[in-house]
Design a protein that fits this description.
By secondary structure, this protein is of the alpha/beta class. It has 8 helices and 9 strands. It is 33% helix and 24% strand.
Length: 230
């Protein structure tokens, strides 16, 4: 079996419970730290590509060499019709490659919130086995518009566009891969953002903790569905 390629775009924004899933399913994977300038390989050599979050905005791509290389990789991957899962920034850069606008969300979305499947989401195989609404974790300022040819699959009260799919390419705005044990690190590194929205690290963790097992299970279900598309 070809390995799964994971592109990590910031030191602390790892693949979280995605790596747990891959390990438990004996699926090989490789992690490339793009933020360190590590060479991004050809997606043709991998079962699928998973592109993680990043605190930078896609509007800053021209200012960072590693993001220029990442944008080129995503473009090549989509042209080659290779399986792609983009999470938060990974979904935003996918939307940009597909010609959709990425812009500031009306408000910064940090914490654990309820989400709703749209009518299209309820019928899409990516969300097979999901209930009409479910919790997920967020930490983002920007949001994507839905690319031409795709439909919005998930929505929340704070952010309208939460997920889309075109063929084997998937963009998610939320973090199903979030790991409770790693949230304190996020809260420490991104502490100024918590101050901005009036949250504490304790509030973020306590809001996530009751849903951690459920969110992990939803992540596994989504990954089952995603890899079935490959």
């Amino acid at each position: 079996m070809k390995p799964v390629l994971i592109l990590q775009n910031h030191e602390i924004e790892s693949a979280g419970t995605i790596t747990d899933y891959l390990t438990e399913h004996t699926m090989p994977f490789e992690v490339v730290n793009t933020w360190r300038g590590e060479l991004i390989p050809d997606s043709q050599d991998y079962l699928a590509s998973v592109v993680m979050g990043c605190p930078l905005s896609v509007s800053e791509i021209p200012n960072h060499e590693f993001l220029k290389h990442l944008y080129a990789f995503v473009s090549r991957t989509i042209r080659a019709n290779r399986p792609y899962l983009g999470i938060c920034f990974g979904g935003q850069i996918l939307a940009r490659v597909m010609g959709a606008k990425v812009e500031r969300n009306p408000e910064k979305e940090i914490g654990t919130f309820r989400h709703r499947l749209t009518a299209d989401g309820q019928s899409d195989p990516l969300f097979r086995g999901f209930p009409p609404d479910f919790p997920a974790f967020h930490w983002h300022s920007d949001t994507f518009r839905i690319p031409f040819g795709a439909t919005n699959l998930v929505e929340s009260d704070k952010c309208k566009n939460q997920a889309f799919r075109i063929g084997k390419a998937v963009g998610l705005q939320f973090h199903f891969e979030a790991d409770l044990a790693k949230l304190p690190v996020w809260c420490e590194v991104y502490a100024p953002e918590l101050v901005e929205v009036g949250l504490t690290a304790e509030a973020v963790s306590s809001g996530f903790s009751p849903h951690a097992t459920e969110i992990r299970a939803y992540n596994y279900t989504l990954l089952d569905n995603f890899f079935a598309l490959t």
